[in-house]
Amino acid sequence: MKRIMGTLRNQDGADILAKIMTLISTWRLNGQNPFYSLRAII
C-alpha cells in the first residue's frame, strides 16, 4: 500500500484512492462483490 500511495503526486489522487478503498471495504463487509459493485456504478 505504501508503494501505491507514494506514486500519487497530488492530494486529489490520494483522496480518490481513499474513497475507492472505502467503497471496496464496505462492499466486502456487506458480502457484495467489489468488482461487480464498482462496475455497476461506473
SSE blueprint:
Layout: H1 2-6, H2 11-29, H3 34-41
Helix pairs in contact: 2-3
Write up this protein.
- There is one protein chain.
- With about 40 residues, the chain is mainly α.
- It is about 75% helix and about 0% strand.
- The chain has one domain.
- Helix 2 (about 10-30) packs across helix 3.
Structure in a nutshell:
With 42 residues, the protein is mainly α.
Which value, in Å, is the CA radius of gyration?
12 Å
**N- to C-terminal separation?**
24 Å
- Outline type: elongated
Number of helices: 3
Proportion of residues in helical segments = over 70%
Uncertain spans, ≥5 residues at pLDDT below 50?
Answer: none
Strand segment count: 0
Backbone structural class? mainly alpha
List keywords for this structure.
42 residues; 0% strand
